[in-house]
What we know:
The structure holds 2 protein chains of 2 kinds.
Chain A: E1 2-10, E2 13-20, E3 27-35, H1 38-45, H2 50-56, E4 59-60, E5 64-72, E6 82-85, E7 88-89, E8 107-109, E9 112-113, E10 121-123, E11 128-130, H3 136-139, H4 142-158, E12 165-169, H5 173-185, E13 190-195, H6 198-201, E14 209-212, E15 224-227, H7 234-244, E16 250-253, H8 265-271, E17 274-277, H9 283-293, H10 296-303, E18 306-312, H11 315-327, E19 331-336
Chain B: E1 2-8, E2 26-27, E3 30-31, H1 32-41, E4 48-53, H2 58-67, E5 75-79, H3 84-99, E6 106-111, H4 119-132, E7 134-140, E8 164-173, H5 174-183, H6 186-190, H7 196-201, E9 207-210, H8 221-232
Parallel strand pairs in B: 1-4, 1-6, 4-5, 7-9
Antiparallel strand pairs in B: 2-3, 6-8, 7-8
Amino acid sequence: xxxxxxxxxxxxxxxxxxxxxxxxxxxxxxxxxxxxxxxxxxxxxxxxxxxxxxxxxxxxxxxxxxxxxxxxxxxxxxxxxxxxxxxxxxxxxxxxxxxxxxxxxxxxxxxxxxxxxxxxxxxxxxxxxxxxxxxxxxxxxxxxxxxxxxxxxxxxxxxxxxxxxxxxxxxxxxxxxxxxxxxxxxxxxxxxxxxxxxxxxxxxxxxxxxxxxxxxxxxxxxxxxxxxxxxxxxxxxxxxxxxxxxxxxxxxxxxxxxxxxxxxxxxxxxxxxxxxxxxxxxxxxxxxxxxxxxxxxxxxxxxxxxxxxxxxxxxxxxxxxxxxxxxxxxxxxxxxxx
Amino acid sequence: xxxxxxxxxxxxxxxxxxxxxxxxxxxxxxxxxxxxxxxxxxxxxxxxxxxxxxxxxxxxxxxxxxxxxxxxxxxxxxxxxxxxxxxxxxxxxxxxxxxxxxxxxxxxxxxxxxxxxxxxxxxxxxxxxxxxxxxxxxxxxxxxxxxxxxxxxxxxxxxxxxxxxxxxxxxxxxxxxxxxxxxxxxxxxxxxxxxxxxxxxxxxxxxxxxxxxxxxxxxxxxxxxxxxxxxxxxxxxxxxx
Lengths: 338, 241
């Protein structure tokens, strides 16, 4: 089958690559809805190191996607089954104790190999998670939810003390989804969000407290913290976390930063803090994310931060989506109709 | 029911390459026609796929289906006719013999030598044929079209904004197509170059489905080279990033 792959060939420029693909022993999925991630936007805008861009492009973008099975050579799924797609390509050998998303040799679609902007995606059945009862628009951000599920799972397994009050730094999409998942996974924890934008913070209606960074009350402290800021803001967020976290607390770093971030190690040592990096997710996180999303309340909270752009029917419309995404406060989702 | 009809009865006279009809030439790792059939297989709305092949090549066609492990469950190979429309009529007859006549049957006819067709275009054909009875896939004309009725002097240059380049699929209500075709005179049949014209002769409307420039017809050596380049191109690397 001749597949259409919509590759970013250089920042702001797409071209179609026609790929002869053997799908006889694969699950063939027609992508239906996709979401834009900051990582995609960075490639599109050229906000990555020139050497990285030269090495990784051309490449199809987008790693948040749901679709429908149109053919299954493995006889795992019926035609028409709605599925979310896992962008990790796990290495051949699984090493015990190492999650698939950190394993050496694992690949990630839309970071080094083609993402989901294709006419069809051919995958192994273990890279596909079926779902029912989730709106396709919301299902498109399943990967994003799975990243939060993964981070919270690791936090729960490795922290040394009671969950108590959990601070979440950042008021963007990642912070929002982490809060949604915290409510679900640790219902007894008190969740405090710390962010810069009052309007965006107002969307976090389901957390216990929210503060702007310059308006933290006297005596404010948290037992643990999730850093969901990234970029230039990472420095200030991490500094705040070290300042307000109580001894032996756990801080999960989730925001991506292009530049190195200075960290106050003296206070980390003095407080005996655990710092843990968390990135991407694996199959079990996707399965759990789908389970959460099938809950109406959870799904509706997610839908509150999604802006649905018009359908993408051609390359011109891909440019439009990336432009729209720069203006939306949270997640941008669009129908893939090529 | 919805039937795919892949028209592959040509013997490649325009190609002038070897003795293999163009639809059987390799594109990437597979013959052109296998790529085309695979796109139709991926369309779940098509119940059965008929392939109309020149009588001398039906065994070869069946061998190819075996070789490339194409699921035979919903595929029939039938003999083509002298013309493209004869082949379509043969396919309709075969389908009706197998599944009976029914006013709701839709046939999606497609050139075997257009392997770059997308699932979207196939599905839009089905929707349009179900709604209107007939549709033609066409892309806006890129070149100015010049008319010269005597082949010597330009008689007209039609306004390009009203002109489209015809592609396939072309899809129809099957019964209607057969009925109108049978009502045509031999003179009318002789000037038919494509199936949509059957409907126009019968004063029946044909609606447009937007085609894609990539949906090329591999008819000449030049087309074949372009298709090979499309499939085998190295990644485009732009130096200025």
